[in-house]
Amino acid sequence: MDPSPKSFPILSYVMSRLPSIVGRRSETPVERDIEQPPVDDSHRRPLEAVELVERMPRLNNPELLAAMVASVSDVAQTRSVLQTLGERPDHEAVDDARARIAEIDAALARDLEEIVRAPRPEEADRLQWRAEREKECRARAERERRAYKAVIQLDEMHEAYDNLLKDAEERLVKIYRSAEAAGGGADGSRAPAARGEDEPVNEEVIRILQEASGKCPERVDLSDRRMRYLPEDFGKLHGMVSLNLSNNQLEVIPDAIAGLKCLEEFRLSSNFLVSLPDSIGLLSNLKILDVSGNKLKALPDSISKCSSLVELDASYNELTYLPTNIGYELVNLEKLWIYLNKIRSLPTSVCEMRSLRLLDAHFNELRGLPYAVGKLTNLETLNLGSNFSDLQELPPTFGDLINLRELDLSNNQIHALPDTFGRLDKLITLNLDQNPMVIPPVDIVHKGVEAVKEYMAKRWIDILLEEERKSMSQENTPRAGWLTHSTSWLNNMISGVSGSISEYMGTGAKNRDPLLDQQL
């Protein structure tokens, strides 16, 4: 059974009700309005208590109740500290801070080496002169490090308190479950038997390993077998091409999995995995990886080494970030599913996934997209729905996604589409529901995707014409033919020639106007 608080639906209810049931009294007396009769709420408390005790009958045990109240207090205090810390820096910012510190340290080492080699002024004492120079260099390096160290320290504090919060919540769940298992104990010390190599190995796994001594099977399907662990010997099946371990109870994948050198398809969905082994980066032929429906907190940095990956499904986990360099090496990735996670930002390296055709990141906590997202010119399907109040705008380069066909931006807080939106000529499906849209107006949105594209295209031309007018008035050097060219281009757009925008905005340099390029 899943020990996490997420799987214990009564947890939040307990935290909101327990203190009132125990009957803690406020140290500050409640002031009452003497002109109003006292409100008798005695009938409410018993109803709440009865409801909770019906759901959790072991709460009649005073020892159990006291232990759970103490755990609730720990959870509340830890959450309070986390709120005080403020927003946690994203993973890319932390990685960048570490890289900058490493650069500063390397520069300091070079400076110190130069001081040793530098000639000493004749009138100065050699040791004193060197000490002063070294002190200045170290002080300067420390000043440069200070801001980056603050970022790292803040992230470490968040990590520490996140772990404390998790432990406190799990302890609260464990206390009650142990009481149920032991008939009312409150110490939470009795835990389920650990899963490990002492448990019997699935018979089909044994059969496969025995048959592998003769000829290694290329495709193995062990889904829905209630497997709790995978033997290390599985890493010896070097010729295996496809392995399906979905819908089991696996908590760990052994490092020996790196031995599957020929593996192209690896399915691990719907297990209890909290991490993947670093050795997964050695699967250089892996094309499809499905780890959806687990409890992964992060993907290993080594996953960037799986350079043959074409499809990666990491949806429905507990991810808060993607590896910083994931996009620099997964250049063949075509489909990426990361929905139903807690990701706050995408690393800038994602913009280097030039082969990407599908990106599904709905139901996360995204606050925006990397500025260079327009580089994903092969992207056809993009789902950013249900990031709610976190997602409020799109970058100006969004209009460079010239092959985009399906776009879902529903359930966010987007007020305006980027001015370049009208360039998305191939867009045929657009969902803007539940956004406080101003640009384009709601009545235009209700008319459908073509109306939105036409409105944004006209708006873009108006902006360009206005900028040109301002530029000409400032320079007082009107350029003949520009206005005529733009007006003709706009007329073509209105008459239904949707290719006009991409024709002018494209890479061809034959008829391009340098001044308009400058404005773009």
UniProtKB/TrEMBL annotation:
Belongs to the SHOC2 family. One of its GO terms (biological process) is microgametogenesis. Residues 24-43 are annotated as: Disordered. PANTHER family: PTHR48051, RAS SUPPRESSOR PROTEIN 1. It holds the Pfam family LRR_8. Residues 124-171 form a coiled coil. Keywords: Coiled coil, Leucine-rich repeat, Repeat. The keyword Lyase does not apply. This is Plant intracellular Ras-group-related LRR protein 3-like. The gene is LOC103712001. The keyword Repeat applies. One of its GO terms (cellular component) is cytoplasm.
